[in-house]
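Problem 12. The chain below contains 524 residues. Write out its predicted structure in token notation.
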Amino acid sequence: MEPTAASTASEATDASSNGHAATAETFDVHRPTDGSVIQSVAIDPPERVAEVVSRVRANQADWEAMGFAERRRWLERWRDWLLENREHIADVVQEETGKVRGDSGLESIYLELAINFWGQNGEKYLADETPTPGILPAKVKRLRVRYRPYPVVGIISPWNFPLILSAGDAIPALMAGSAVVIKPSEFTPLELMEVIRGWKEEVGGPDVIDFVNGTGDTGGALVDNADYMHFTGSDRTGRIVMKRAADTLTPVSLELGGKDPAIVLADADMDRAVNACAYGGFVNTGQVCMSIERIYVEEPVYDEFVDRLAGSVRELRQGADGRSYEAEQGAMTSPAQIDIVSDHVEDARSKGARILTGGKRKDGPGDWYEPTVVADADHTMKVMRDETFGPVVGVMKVRDEAEAVRMANDTRYGLSASVFSKDVGRAEKVAEQLEVGAANINDALVNYFHLEVPMGGWKDSGIGWRHGPGGIRKYCRTETIVSPRLPNSKSEPLWYPYTPTRRKMLNRLYRLVNARGLKNRLGL
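Solution.
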């Protein structure tokens, strides 16, 4: 018999108590679909966080020393366990997040993809670099740059994608040779606890990855003890993490909020634009940092677009679908977030926007909000200015592409964007004017799954990036080694003693080298 979602979540928690005493302080994990309690989870106080970090740090040197190929083999065993347990993991995901089945399965799939990608590319990205000295006198030296992992990487992850944004960020760190400690959101710790239990108990992996549970005190203690911090969440909390990390000069990467725009030009393929915006705005019930939250449509096609988008969104099925794939919209994961969503919609309504579909909470238990399209929105409204992070999109009419670009850039966020036009070249030129870390042409959200290229935000959307070569190198410190190419002499021209003759000779050499460089730069 296959386990139910309820039993798998409880088993995951019981099996992964992380060494807590039964009398430890706890918090409750709730089902967003009806508000009932799944399980109580023990809180890790600061001293416990320090112990966990210290323990994995003690094992990190051996993990690094085993080499990339052996680390990859361990992670591939974890991948195989994930593949074998994909349905079980999706059960746990659904229960504590309220996702529909079509969204919950993405979590494990991304981890499998990430293990394969970093396993295939990580060694190349971390290979020693051997720059060539730029001037003739320096060519007697051999230059080598090495990437060496931070001992312990700390990760604080959010509730909207509890595996992709926790274990998914741990995978390149582990491939690089770091140990990892993760603090998941207190709303959604169970699925991470389960996949780490799989690493420890089923895979038998080395003791180089663990979790700690709790709220602000637990997260702060992790910042205090880790050697590098990666945080995903709100820009408000990201600033707190960065300030705390400054006390210990701990480097950070921050993936923060977004208010991602879509621009629909008059020559867009209307079917594709509508379908992409419906998916990009409402997947995972709109709880995606890169969700399309605001849409700017050129005036000639505005009425057609909003009517068709509203019709498409009206057809979305909402409910708790178990393993049936009978819904596209689930419950909202965080109870507090539904209040923000309601406030944004009511603010737009009070300022004259038209609510074409949805626009209210669903009756009954749980945290449900109807998929909502807000038409005739403008930048006086919160729905076009502040991160909504729920099943709501605002649509605004613009005169032309210049106004669309100006409005799209009129935000403190800069995570990603989408541009729709049958003329790909035109769309790319529009995208090049947008102040974002990534832009999709005639698509939505797809950039996240292209691990070959960096994914990161501008402005208040963050510091640093995921993916691409920098997505694994960020977990490393660089070490430069300068070695002689020729047998060493007893002394060097720059060494003591200083004499007029030696200094005159060196000045002539510097003048020759530097003047030659100037001439080269001037094309002489």
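Discussion. The longest helix spans residues 101-125. Students who got a different answer should revisit the alignment rule from Section 12.3.
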